[in-house]
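Can't paste images in this forum, so I'm doing it all in text. The chain is below; anyone willing to post the predicted structure tokens underneath?
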Amino acid sequence: MSKSSISYSGVGRMAGRPVITDIMKVALENPEILSLAAGFTDTHSLPVSFVRDETVALCSSGGAPEYLQYGTTIGRPGLRRLVARRLSRADGHQNRSCHPDNVMITNGSQQALYLAMQVLCDPGDIILVENPSYFVFLELLKGLGIEPLGIPVDSDGRIDPDGFAVLLKRLRGENRLSRVKGVYLDSWYSNPSTRCLDNGVKEAIADVLKSVDLRVPILEDGAYRELYFRTPHSSSSIFALQAFDEFPRLFFGTFDKPFASGLKIGFVICDHAGLFRKMLNVKGHHDFGSSNYTQAIIQNALENGSFDRQLATVRSRYKEKMEILHGTMLEEGMRGHGWTWSKPDGGMYLWVRGPGNMDLGKDSLFFKSAVEEGVIYIPGDLCFASEGPTHYMRLSFGVLERKDLIRAGKRLVKVVKQFSGPLPV
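Text version of the structure:
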């Protein structure tokens, strides 16, 4: 009797197991491990009371419970209006392209990114990214056979426009410039570097692209824009910068990180009608619309001010948690062993650099020793477009409570000290 067999598609063959799955498996299999890896939100400040009260209010409102019915593929009209208005207000600029008709509600911003890549790219195409960049997006590209190519940076890790120009000219010389299908920017409190992109840097990127006549879509990730600790960063979105008027623009946002990740609602704003329509068509194939109910919850939170009240709470919590982890690592003497990092002004991460000869990868002795000590992190080499340096790590202070952040910091520094002398045998 012959055995059955399956012939997979190209995407099926490329769809490997995500690295984050393996890392989280390590943490879940041992409840004693304290995770500085997952970018989970702060559990104890989630808006439980609001969601409970809003559920009761919705169910008591009378009339047809349309919020429990299918919605539209593009999303609730009221929520789309609020999204467009909120971005315009944040920019202090009313771009006519930032319009509700150009807003699509998605299952988190990750789905919107996937839709864009499905529509824009074939295997072998190139997306230009910051270096380092959001490692889950890099894995998404890998799973679709798309090549992420890092934009050159200077010695301080900031985008180097001159180096970028050299890269594009090299691609043109290799007859690969036509394979570049977009530029991905994580503009505020970046995951993982925690940096923000100033308007001048963004405009320089646009100028370099124009210099080689490459007007590809610009994909701007604003997931952490509103998670500043004290004051918002002064830069504007690409919709408010005239330098990008000649480019297709996509702005990605989420309500997961600033409000409630379990509601799983994000969005994309796209000013290119053809691209937007194609993405909407593919989303229709995926699910013909994100949850109408959770959209209603978010819409009401924006309308009645609960969303902004929640933001104020989490900003305070994340600032306090950042200070706790940062302070613990300092007090335990981590910097004295050649490790450096900067205090961020927002977001949920510390981007830590170890000594140049250190290997912090997921198969390294250091990583295994950290797990044995009861702490886990994201290896920084996962965050680079190609084979990156191995002496970085990303630490998330989002989910652990104060006392556990202190314990996790102490455990991590204990491992650092073990590796400061001769390597264990």
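The two ends are 52 Å apart (CA to CA). The chain is about 40% helix and 10% strand.
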